[in-house]
Amino acid sequence: VMQATPATWRMLVSAGWEGAPEMRALCGGEALPAELASALRSRVGALWNVYGPTETTIWSTSEAVRGDSAGGGQVPIGRPVASTRVYLLDAAGEPVPVGVAGELYIGGAGVVRGYLGRPEQTAERFVADAYGGEPGARLYRTGDRARWRPDGTIEFLGRTDFQVKVRGFRIEPGEIEARLAEHPGVREAVVMAREDAPGDVRLVAYVVGDADAEPLRAHLAAALPEYMVPAAYVRLERLPLTPNGKLDRKALPAPEGGAYASREYEAPVGKIEVALAEIWTELLRVERVGRWDHFFELGGHSLLALQVVSRVRQMMDVELALAAVFEKPVLAALAERVVELRLARFDPETLARLAQLVRQPGAEAAPAMEEPV
Fold first, then answer.
1. Cα Rg of the chain (Å, integer)
2. Helices marked H in the chain
3. Residue 231 and residue 191: Cα distance in Å, rounded?
4. DSSP 8-class letter at 238
5. In degrees to the nearest 10, what's the CA dihedral of 226, 220, 102, 29?
């Protein structure tokens, strides 16, 4: 029998370890990616994904990894082991339905007495068991988020203390990581919020695999609301680890310009597109913006869209509605909208005269028009 973290198992597999048919392998400590589980399952006699904190005498749930449980994403943490009870509760301490995320509480024989010499911390983490029916029984509040799957197993979603707030939305990075892990080009994924400029907090996805930013963004956009879709995607050879083999979040690098989803570059055309591109480049902190780039795919959001509206008003004397940025998020399309607003200043007679000028071969542009129509 061998027990190790996913990082240790991955190092063995990467080193060319051929496995041992008689071995029973246990994997715990962090989420087990399905891709790694498949690689291990073919090398050992039996593989178990195990979950549990020290405060519940280590393992509290387990899942025997078979072909169906290692199909995609990450392997569930399974069902409670003998003499153990597991509850997924909301902020009010009520059980959540199947498919809804809740905090994971553990009860039963494995729950320890508490923290030695720390009564306040014990009272905070060990709470009365209102559901077990056993007088004086307590639950350990893990701080982990999870949800019940329809088959009765539990899907681990990450830590509650990793919860982040981006533009007023409370986000669980673990939920985004679980969706990223479903993409065939992703072996491992970590999502975190970075504030690389004061007041500008963005979600960044760190991915081990061969998937590029644009397909990953499209994959997430199909399953998650816009505010949960990361702005940047950083590809890594491997995730940085602490000496004890767990993820070192502090060592994750800041995203560079190429980490943001972008289309094939085509230079902006005309004064309006060029001016808008300059505004986007500054606000989005990217190297360049092309005609067909998408504001939100480059990391834009509602607060930055407000700044676009303000800059357009200052630089072009045009009252651009905030909704226009959402309706026409591609640079060329938004530039067309700005031109339309500028044309709207002219009375019908002037517009008809301008149209006639444009139709005349060799006619010069009207002095009132700064932008070709």
1. 27
2. 6-14, 34-41, 119-125, 173-180, 213-221, 270-284, 302-316, 322-327, 331-343, 348-359
3. 11
4. S
5. -140
What is the average pLDDT value for the chain, to the nearest integer? 85
Enumerate residues 6+ apart whose C-beta is below 8 A from 68: none
The structure tokens listed for 336 are 């067309």
Partnered with residue 202 across adjacent β-strands are: 194
Strand pairing of 61-64 and 2-4? unpaired
Task: From residue 43, give the alpha-carbon distance in Å to each of 9, 37, 46, 57.
Answer: 11, 10, 9, 29
Specify the amino acid at residue 229. Answer: V
Q: What is the per-residue DSSP string for 138-181?
A: EEEEEEEEEEE-TTS-EEEEEEGGG-EEETTEEE-HHHHHHHHT
pLDDT computed for residue 11 by the predictor: 77
Q: In sequence order, which residues have a C-beta less than 8 Å from that of residue 248 and are 6 or more positions away?
A: 240, 241, 242
Q: Residue 100 half-sphere exposure, CB side, CA atoms within 13 Å?
A: 11
Q: Name every residue whose Cβ is closer than 8 Å to that of residue 369 and which is 6 or more positions away in sequence.
A: 354
Structure tokens at 193: 């919020």
| Burial of 232 per CB tally in 10 Å (0-12, 13-18, 19+) | buried
Kindly state the tokens that stand for 94.
Answer: 């009520």
Per-residue pLDDT of 2-31, as tens digits, reads: 998 887 888 788 778 899 999 999 999 888
CA distance 224 to 66: 28
CB 365 within 8 A of CB 372: yes
Size of the chain, expressed as the number of residues it contains: 373
pTM, 2 dp: 0.53
The string of DSSP codes covering 268-299 is --HHHHHHHHHHHHHHHT-S---TT-BTTTTT
Which of the residues in the chain have pLDDT under 70? Answer: 67-72, 165, 167-168, 196-200, 257-258, 260-263, 351, 354-355, 357-373
Beta bridge partners of 156: 146
Q: How far is CA 29 from CA 77, 306, 323, in A?
A: 11, 43, 46
Dig out the tokens for 366 from the structure: 């009207």
Q: What is the pLDDT of residues 347-370, one digit of tens each?
A: 777 767 766 766 665 544 444 444
In the chain, the largest separation of any two C-alpha atoms, in whole Å, equals 94
DSSP 8-state class, residue 95: B
The set of residues, in sequence order, having a beta carbon less than 8 Å from that of 277 and lying 6+ positions away, is 268, 288, 289, 290, 331
